[in-house]
Amino acid sequence: MTQSSSTTEQLEPQKILLELTCKVEALESSGKFVPSSKSRRPEAATDPFALRVLVAATAAGFTKTLFTRCPDEYYSWPLEKRRGLLRGASLHHLTKSIVLQNTRHDGDHNPDDVLRSKFLCCVVPYSTKINSDALRDAVRKLFGERGLQVPSARHFNYRLAEDCIGVTGYEPNAVTPLGLKTRMPVVLAKQIAQLDPPTFWLGAGEVSLKWRVELDEFVSAFNPVVLDFAISEES
């Protein structure tokens, strides 16, 4: 590799970061994104890992996006303080990605079909929790909607994936739908699909790295199935 090509490769992520930062600023000034406080917007992460994820996100079609680093004590904070740091419009705009495994899956894993997949990457607001029975019922309902025979409930038992790192490539609290080690369908909680403004935060591959996305770009990139399976933490 020549010195010139090496330099180009080093500069490309910074160029992308600059362009996307400008787009984020334009988005905020347009009024489409409404921050909940007057504090300065989160600072864009520029470390090597964050830049690699940024390039991957750009390749996936994201153009209005932002990556930022959180302090080590972030997960010891109450949700409201986390929301304040990220300037989320509400607690519901802070989300988490959780990979579930159907422990009773008895066929081949089909990463492109929520009905045939052994694993599901479920994206839900931090203000909610997954109801595995509701998820099972929602998936079974899809069979009927597609004109297929509905399997017995005994064929479904959704639980946390036994080996998070082995299945996803990420440790807990760092899981993201982007670049999963095992391909699988993305399932989006209906609460996120109804967010106003339609902008939310999720994990980005490392525990301290957070990723802000626009709902339309997320849907375009991951083609998620929207289901009603998350309930309030207070329920």
Automatic annotation (TrEMBL):
Name of the molecule in the record: YbaK/aminoacyl-tRNA synthetase-associated domain-containing protein
InterPro entries: YbaK/aa-tRNA-synt-asso_dom_sf
Domain of life of the source: Eukaryota
High-level lineage: Eukaryota, Rhodophyta, Florideophyceae, Rhodymeniophycidae, Gigartinales
GO terms for MF: aminoacyl-tRNA deacylase activity
Source organism of this protein record: Chondrus crispus
CDD domains named among the record's database cross-references: YbaK_like (cd04332)
